[in-house]
Every structure is written in structure tokens, then in C-alpha cells.
Amino acid sequence: MSLNVTFRQLRVFESVAHHSSFTRAAEELHLTQPAVSMQIKQLEESLGLALFDHLGKKIFLTDAGSEFFKTSRSISRQLSEAEEFIEEIKGIHQGHLNIVVASTANSFATNLLATFIQRHPEITFSLDVTNRQRLLESLSANEPDLVIMGQPPEKLDVVAEAFMENPLVIVVGKNHSLFRKEISFTPEKIQKERFVVREQGSGTRTAMERFFEERGLQLETRMEFGSNEAIKQAVQAGLGLAMVSIHTIQLELEAKVLRVLEVKDLPIQRQWHLVYRKGKRLSPVAESFRQFVLDEGSSLVSEVR
Ligand code: PGA
């Protein structure tokens, strides 16, 4: 049997069935009432069945009409899912992605974005690299699509999804006396050394301070630098030791200008998180980037190392 039913007829039928009224369906669909009656008549002829009983001024679905109503609704649902899916594909190809990352995450975020953009060359993006304070401000204003950060904020209502480990280690530069000594340290022994540290508000710095405080220790000498680049320069120049994320020092380790010191209880095992405000409706591009980072982020970053 081949049915000659149109989507337009289904839509009119659903509206009439829903309202139990030709008049109300006509209003809803911005049609005249005879146009609605005509669509239903044609549909009934195609099916070879009456869909409505007319009792006085009222109309009721027949048994066949009730069954057909279920089928029709299921077709409409599938159609609207297909529409959403098509919009989503269009969206991914044309959208804009607004990402904010903690400064340490910049060491791998650019590589992740580059791979994502290769797959979706039409999308545009902005990447803001900033400290934790500014990052929390923009999260609280719900500005970015997604944030990549270490410790998710406790005071904001956010969704935070861990996607990769972020080990923190202590490094020494080639101009430092400890560079060539194969010694294992305890936290007590290493805290006597001179350290260069990140600025207040840095997630790395907070984790480092917590590590020593938990052991009743406090670092003595402090020289403060506002970025990982500056920290690495200072350590290479022999100004002191530093605690950094392993993700920031791959090139320096390969070039053998920095070395990771062996210290008991290190590395500190932290996680990188994808974060966004709870209840935020992610755009198709943002949702696709989120999936990409969760599924492939960790393995792509290890390859870059
Ligand atoms: P950073 O890193 O703030 O030290 O750059 C982010 C984090 O580790 O939380």
C-alpha cells in the first residue's frame, strides 16, 4: 500500500485532534476553516478511513483516528529531531567559540584548539588566557562558552568535568648547583632551598602553598613572577627552584635545561577541568568542543609532549 500523506496534512490533523476543533486549528495554523477541513478530508481519503466523528457541533477522534494520532506524533517528533540535528551540524560549521583558560592551561589549550579548528575550519574562536581571579569574574558573568582551569570554584554554581591529570613537580635549572646532583628530597629538606613562585591567585601557587602548609612547612625566600614563562626563565637562570605543572616544561625537559627533582609525596596530582555555569545552554560549537576535549584531550596532549 502506498500512502499519499503530506507533512502538512499531519500537522493540520494533529492540531485539529489536539484542540478537538477545526476552528481552533485554523486559528493556530493561520489558515481558513475550509482549508483545514479540506486537508483533513484529503487525509481521510488517502487513508481510506474516517479520523473524526462529528456529533452535533463537536468532533471526536475515531479509534482509527486515535491510533493515527500516536503515529503522527511520533513522525513529528522524529522530524523535529532531524531538524535539530541539521541545525546542529550547521551550527558547528558556522559558530563562534569563546574559551577562557587559566594561564598554565595555555600550554596545551592552543594545541587542542588547533586540532579542533582543523576539523571545523569554518568556526571562529577567541581564546583568553588569564589568571584565576579574572577567570572567576568572567565565569560569574557567564561570558565564556567554556573555561579550562585547575581547581573549579567552590562558590559558584558550575559544572566541572575533569579531563586530564595535571601533575605539579619541582624543577631545577641547569645553572643551579642541584642540577647535576642525583639526590632525593623530603619536603622538609627541599623547603630550605630558595624558590621562585607564581603570583598570588595562581592555582599552581595555591596548590604549592597547601602542599607545604599541610606538612607544617613554609617556604623561606620568595621571588614572585606573573607567568610560567617568567618562572622558567628565572629557574633556568639559577635564581631558585620552582613548582610548575608538568605541562609547561616539555620543551625545556627535552632540551635538558630543566630537570624534575625527586621529592617525596610529589608530584601533586591535580586535574584539569572543563567548567561552565550550571544551567548554561551550550551552543552546538561549544558542545562539540566539550565532547572533543573530554574524549580526546588527554591523549592529544600526551602526544604533544
Ligand atoms: P595557574 O593554573 O592559575 O597556576 O596558571 C591554573 C591551575 O592550576 O589552577
Compact summary:
GO terms for molecular function: DNA-binding transcription factor activity; transcription cis-regulatory region binding. By secondary structure, the chain is of the alpha/beta class.
Would you give an account of this structure?
The chain has 305 residues and is of the alpha/beta class. The chain has three domains: 7-75, Winged helix-like DNA-binding domain superfamily/Winged helix DNA-binding domain (Arc Repressor Mutant, subunit A, Orthogonal Bundle), CATH 1.10.10.10; 78-163 and 271-304, Periplasmic binding protein-like II (D-Maltodextrin-Binding Protein, domain 2, 3-Layer(aba) Sandwich); 165-270, D-Maltodextrin-Binding Protein, domain 2 (3-Layer(aba) Sandwich). The protein contains eleven helices and 13 strands. Strands 3, 4, 5, 6, 10, 11 and 13 form a seven-stranded mixed beta sheet that branches. A two-stranded antiparallel sheet has the order 1-2. A two-stranded parallel sheet has the order 7-12. It starts with 6 loop residues before the first helix and ends with a helix. The structure holds 2-phosphoglycolic acid. 2-phosphoglycolic acid is lined by residues 102-104, 131-132, 149-151, 198, 202-204.
